[in-house]
Inverse folding.
């Protein structure tokens, strides 16, 4: 992801996820570009429950979202299921 | 003048249902306010914005909290009404007398040819209508129980999914949820308290009294008397 795209992507992040990247520095966009996240391919699953949502593509790449004051924002991206045990959380490249 | 008398009479003759209706509204309002505060406290901890009262009232979190209590109350009464057809508790004002177990005769129940002139029509007509009317109380209570329990499962599943997604966990299917600890913990913690309350009521009513209450024997009635008519 180019730094310019990353700057737009940063605006789609929920406050905690954005803060987490800013702490990695030097800026949210630089830290996000360094993660080398791939865009989601064809979406195969969308789950919405209350203020939370999950979107997964055919490769298993998953994004978690939350409904905040500004609308839906990404709380975690580049997530993958690391275990069949439903008690084990996804492992995410970016999260708050 | 007569309107005023009729109005007073209406309130007096329906005081029990009106007061409990008001208590229900008051308790639901309190539950909504405290539930919203708790929800927003958890949302803030998770870095999410607070939600409005309207949004909370239409949320699965509020629905599951209401439904889990409703189902257990209606289960309690449906079960008690049904079991007391056959089971008795000697000395309890909440029980028939020993020896009276069972459905009783048509004459005792005033159905079909034994109906009084003022009996409900479906008690007089016989056939399926009298059969259905003879079981209408348990049928309606049990139906509300099943509907509330289903609502608890559906709303609980959505609320559980919301929480799991917040924690980056894979959501459960509805089938997985109704076998999961959250569903059964919510269900059984309500059932145990209902069974305790109704069981102790049946036993306490043998030895304890509340003067003037139809739920109690008369104060001077012996402990061994199963009803005040003994």
């Amino acid at each position: 992801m180019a730094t310019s795209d990353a700057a737009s992507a940063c605006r789609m992040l929920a406050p905690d996820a954005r803060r987490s990247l800013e702490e990695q520095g030097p800026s949210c966009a630089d830290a996000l570009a360094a993660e080398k996240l791939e865009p989601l391919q064809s979406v195969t699953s969308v789950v919405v429950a209350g203020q939370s949502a999950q979107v997964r593509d055919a490769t298993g790449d998953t994004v978690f979202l939350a409904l905040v004051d500004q609308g839906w924002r990404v709380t975690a991206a580049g997530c993958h299921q690391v275990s069949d045990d439903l008690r084990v959380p996804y492992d995410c490249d970016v999260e708050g | 003048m007569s309107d005023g008398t009729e109005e007073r009479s209406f309130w007096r003759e329906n005081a029990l249902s009106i007061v409990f209706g008001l208590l229900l509204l008051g308790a639901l309002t309190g539950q909504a306010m405290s539930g919203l505060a708790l929800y927003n406290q958890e949302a803030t901890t998770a870095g999410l914005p607070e939600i409005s009262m309207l949004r909370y009232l239409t949320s699965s979190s509020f629905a599951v909290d209401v439904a889990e209590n409703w189902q257990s109350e209606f289960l309690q009464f449906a079960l008690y009404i049904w079991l007391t057809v056959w089971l008795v508790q000697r000395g309890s004002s909440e029980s028939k007398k020993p020896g009276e177990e069972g459905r009783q005769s048509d004459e005792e129940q005033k159905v079909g040819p034994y109906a009084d002139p003022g009996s409900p029509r479906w008690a007089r007509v016989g056939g399926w209508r009298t059969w259905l009317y003879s079981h209408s109380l348990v049928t309606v209570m049990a139906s509300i129980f099943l509907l509330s329990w289903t609502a608890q499962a559906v709303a609980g599943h959505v609320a559980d999914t919301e929480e799991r997604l917040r924690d980056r966990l894979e959501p459960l299917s509805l089938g997985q949820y109704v076998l999961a600890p959250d569903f059964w913990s919510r269900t059984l913690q309500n059932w145990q308290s209902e069974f305790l309350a109704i069981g102790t009521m049946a036993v306490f009513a043998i030895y304890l009294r509340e003067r003037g209450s139809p739920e109690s024997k008369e104060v001077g009635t012996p402990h061994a008397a199963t009803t005040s008519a003994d």
User: Anything to note?
Assistant: DSSP finds ten helices and no strands in chain B.
